[in-house]
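To whoever picks this up:

The parser on our side crashed when reading a file containing two proteins. I've narrowed it down to the boundary between the first structure block and the second sequence. Both blocks are reproduced below exactly, byte for byte. First block:
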Amino acid sequence: MPGLKKRSLVLAGHGTSLALEPAFWTVLEALAAARGLSLAGLVASIDAARGAQPLASACRLAALAFAADARPAGEVQ
């Protein structure tokens, strides 16, 4: 898997950057589209719900949950 891709976002009025593997960004973009949100809006919602968990970890878990839900039943990758 290629290295991390860093993106700059504004969360709660503060600029921040988030580094994730490109595959996770791809899934997060699909999740944002499915929810009718911008990518920044999706990350903001993940940020608001993450508690003490690191933002990158929370984003990866959200992407994994969405990918698992989107996969046809019984399909294993």
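<<boundary where parser fails>>
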Amino acid sequence: MSVFEELRSVRSSKTTGKRDNKAGFFFLLPWLLGLVFITAGPMIASLWISFTKYNLMQSPQFTGVDNYVRMFQDPRLLNSLRVTFEYVFISVPIQLVVALAAAMVLDKGLRALPFYRSVFYLPSLLGSSVAVAILWRQIFGQSGLVNQVLGGIGFHNLPGWISDPQFALGTIILLNIWTFGAPMIIFLAGLRQIPDMYYEAASIDGAGRRTRFLRITLPLLSPIIFFNIILQLIGAFQSFTQAFIVSGGTGGPSDSTMFYSLYLYQRGFNQFDMGYASAMAWLLFIIIAIITAVTFVTSKYWVFYDN
């Protein structure tokens, strides 16, 4: 091949590369427009609004960091943080334990595995819906199914689980645990990737089930556990529908189900204090970012990769 032919081939490959780049940018365009106008744009706008007094009816008035100062003097906000942290750090670990246990049972090669997998996954699709939250409210009401069953086996003077501040949050935690299907499917996929030869070698060496689980399953599954922890933590901090429906939008009784996102909604769309609500949104963003960063930093001590 002559020099001129080589140059022509180089030019042709560059032209083809440019065409491919244009095609790639064309297909990315909807995502880029969504990022700018639906995600990044509103985020920047909310950051500006968080430094203003804005009620949707009048133009925003700049107030500096007043909204952020007011947040730490607001007892209902501090209570909503407590309720949210309690909900997250109780429900998420239990949910992941249940999901891993279910995944290990399904990994044993049961008959009709696709059916059981679908049945267990179904609550994850329905758990955040309004219909299931209404059903949950009825089941745990004063005359709901739970009290009817407990009364039928001899229990008396049963509380209304939803209307009792001592138990109301627990019912919502139970609802979140019930939606273990999504992390279960991810755990099941991870378990299928662990080679059987590791378990066979450990059995030959005399390792029992507990030892095989602690020394083989957990370490090799740790990246999947880490992934599920991140997803479920972020999702739990943003929970809204369950608390809104179960409490009738009040966060009651006695603010026992006043999630942070629900209080944010009340300040923004009930009291039209959009500046304060925007500041609350950014505080939630910072909290989630810090917890996620801490999880990533500490993962090097307990997450094990192939390399």
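After patching the parser it read the second block fine. Residues 49 and 275 are 5 Å apart (CA to CA). The chain has two domains: 3-49, 68-301.
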